[in-house]
Amino acid sequence: MSDPRPIGVFDSGVGGLTVLRELQRQLPAESTIYFADLGHFPYGPRFQGQVRQFSLRIIRFLEELDVKLVVIACNTATAAALNAARETFDIPIVGVITPGAQAAVQATRNKKIAVISTEGTKQSGEYLHAIKEANPTIGVLPLAAPGLVELVERGQAQSPEAEAALRATLAEIIEYAPDTLILGCTHYPLLRPLIQKVTEGKMTIVDSAHTTAARVARVLAANGLAAANEPARHQIYVTGSPDQFLQTAHILFENALPPIQTVSLELVEQMGSREAVG
Ligand code: DGL
């Protein structure tokens, strides 16, 4: 049996495109709808309740577009909304925190893992809990990395400003000497070359894109939801202005960038504010 319905994927901006790209690489037969909530970017400094409300509305919007599964391709939104989303919707919902945490637990040898993320993700304690759940003897240093998300969103992931911000953030981590570093924000894989430079290649760098896509593949297969031979179709929706988004999206997808459509925040609110989501 084959299910040609698309997979819904969302983030506050370009970060989730790192997950989308990996999904398309691992699951080429699957169609996708990507939603970037640029009108509410950034999520990191917001209250969890507000990020939860945005997330549930987006999932409702995606559900109206008949997606068969949703990937919350944002750590901040996964921390704030994954449980509530699973309580609210019947379609499978996959977050990015557990897959990344499990990959790091597999990777570490010296039993020290550091996590960089937004303030919201750090405050939630979700990475710490996921790692300790898998192995309580592993030491964890979670750190918020202010400013990095904005630099990436502005297309400055390779800039001297980004290097300076990383040197400041990673100093405490280098001191702690973990052998594994989790990029606990889907924007950070775009900073990977600079992170590798600043950490001098001494840490295994784990991002959730690969492991999340692998988990989606498993969930689709286990539930008879995988697409087979249909030609895949891809679409991007954004709230707010797509100008900056486009620059980084083009770097990631080159000529294969899916068509982009702007939707108003009001429409997403209207579509998403039914029943339990309100
Ligand atoms: N990319 C998101 C994350 O993984 C959120 C960035 C933001 O909007 O602050 O946390």
Question: Main traits of this protein?
Answer:
single chain, 278 residues, alpha/beta, Rossmann fold, 6-stranded parallel sheet, 4-stranded parallel sheet, 12 helices, 47% helix, 16% strand, globular, binds D-glutamic acid
Q: Helical stretch count?
A: 12
Structural class: alpha/beta
What small molecules does the structure contain? D-glutamic acid
Q: Quote the beta fraction.
A: 15-25%
Reported by name, the CATH topology of the largest domain is: Rossmann fold
H/E topology pattern: EHEHEHEHEHHEHHEHEHEHEH
Description:
- By secondary structure, the protein is of the alpha/beta class.
- The chain has two domains: 7-95 and 210-272, Rossmann fold (3-Layer(aba) Sandwich); 97-208, Rossmann fold (3-Layer(aba) Sandwich), CATH 3.40.50.
- It is built from twelve helices and ten strands.
- It has helices at residues 17-26, 48-64, 75-88, 97-107, 119-124, 126-134, 148-153, 160-176, 192-198, 208-222, 243-253, 265-272, and strands at 7-11, 32-36, 69-72, 93-94, 112-117, 139-144, 180-184, 204-207, 234-238, 260-262.
- The strands form two sheets. The chain has a six-stranded parallel beta sheet, with helices on both faces.
- Helix 2 crosses helix 12.
- The longest helix is centred in the N-terminal third of the chain and has 17 residues, at 48-64.
- The chain starts with 6 loop residues before the first strand and ends in a 6-residue tail after the last helix.
- D-glutamic acid (DGL) binds at residues 11-13, 15, 41-44, 74-76, 118, 121, 149, 185-187.
